[in-house]
Cyclodeaminase
Amino acid sequence: MNDILILNETELRRAAPLNLEAIDTVESCFRALAGPGVVMPPILSMEMKEANGEVDVKTAYLPGMDSFAIKISPGFFDNPKIGLPSLSGMMVVLSARTGLVEALLLDNGYLTNVRTAAAGAVAARHLAPTVVETAGVIGAGVQARLQMIAAHLVRPFRHALVWSPDDALNQEAAAEITAATGALVRVAESAEEVVRQSHLVVTTTPARTPVLMADWLHPGLHITCMGSDQHGKNEIDPKAIAAADLYVCDRVSQCVALGELRSARAAGFLTDVTPPELGQIVTGAVAGRPSSEAITICDLTGTGAQDTAIANFARRRAVAVGAGAAFAR
Amino acid sequence: MNDILILNETELRRAAPLNLEAIDTVESCFRALAGPGVVMPPILSMEMKEANGEVDVKTAYLPGMDSFAIKISPGFFDNPKIGLPSLSGMMVVLSARTGLVEALLLDNGYLTNVRTAAAGAVAARHLAPTVVETAGVIGAGVQARLQMIAAHLVRPFRHALVWSPDDALNQEAAAEITAATGALVRVAESAEEVVRQSHLVVTTTPARTPVLMADWLHPGLHITCMGSDQHGKNEIDPKAIAAADLYVCDRVSQCVALGELRSARAAGFLTDVTPPELGQIVTGAVAGRPSSEAITICDLTGTGAQDTAIANFARRRAVAVGAGAAFAR
């Protein structure tokens, strides 16, 4: 039996930067999700109320891949009070032939950030208007910044708008997006301004009541919402979901329980419709953006398939450059 | 942030042998399961049919414990054909206060073996007749042997019977149990003989049709069945479950989906009864063995609570002797 390869965050950041290759990797996993043979069980989720913490475990088997990942994602929201990040975690890579542990990716959540931002870019590539002059983001944290940076790789916008309730964070986010994309980034007055002025909007909040209202929609708008990933979260006004010309799920079975589809259905919309999945848009089985004037929404809850895809990608790249430490079983 | 502690199988075997302390550790987790504050989500389970493999992920939060474990248990049943064990896996220990990964227990399934055998001993301690002259096991693999060794620590039987369809394995198991316990161990002619001659029986098979029939039951018998841990598995004749004076689950929510309770209910038995749990027997909230003549059955599907308990125990013991390697985040 071979040794177990251990890679730390620094090595994984070097091996798997957020670039077009990462986006293509995640796109290929959505393509696989639209085909046969994928196994993706429901997310294991555990809440620890005493510590204001939770942990999610995701996995998926993708046909043709020799390995699969099991991802452990803790979120402990009082951590910043003691100087620690809220999100951390790691991935375990196992052989899909023998089940043996092959690699431990001690990424502290980095690979999740990459694969989540990459999924946003896949959605933008297939659903946003061909030309995006202005992109906007509601939220200003790490994922807000990465979503804009990833989106810029597929829709090289010249202007961007950022808004969150935290102005210091907004300033930081604007500076970071400017540095990474070269776009002119401005802090908006409101979430409404972000939506009204942009043709590509990403929402990246932990909101439990909508932060994006139906009244603000306008022709030629694409929205990617990636904040809702638990029962009880809700970023998008249900009326906006109902008003969109096309609403797409990363995975229907997850969005109906954890995503915007849950709150939309609770409000009485889309109750007798099964929306298409992003993978079906990627393969062309379902048509993407209907017209330049259409309003489209893509709901991302985050899939174990993305974790398996990015873990395999990062590990392969790390091995190619000889990174990591070997640990005897 | 502290380093991550990495422990390998050899170190964990040394730190956490199957002894009374391990049994007491697992007993205390069943006690916790009967009280408030435990969080134990449904098991994440993924089947990979192409490779005749599966992986289960279990976890639990136990109040008062500073850490919790997430256990990854793969079972790839064609592995023996290429000289590898079917079962492997590891545990990740995380802080219950911050979610940070604290330790990686690369046990290759060893700690699962210990905590499973220890649960059998907890069941025997609280449910088997006070004096057990002869114990028996159906099955002859690793877990069959450990179940007998653990049972002997709480019910020091003088005779034991082993039966499985594989005679070479039976001989090996008999020799190993003899060596560990000093009991006189014999290979039985049949599963029926094991049950008829024993006052404590453990079933440790992956059976999908019963290997223990109701006709074989006799007064003063305790049965622990630990083989069924998936929808479709079934070791015990549903009529035997119905005939027992006391049927106890490790966790009702699991046994009803994965254990003998599932097949018993499918056969029309125990449909309007919620059985007691082992933790309730341990705390005394529910009475254990009703009389020396009673027939009792304990159904073990394996709980994430046991994993968290044994992981914390093994790690604490390993740290105390300075075992393991530190890995920078």
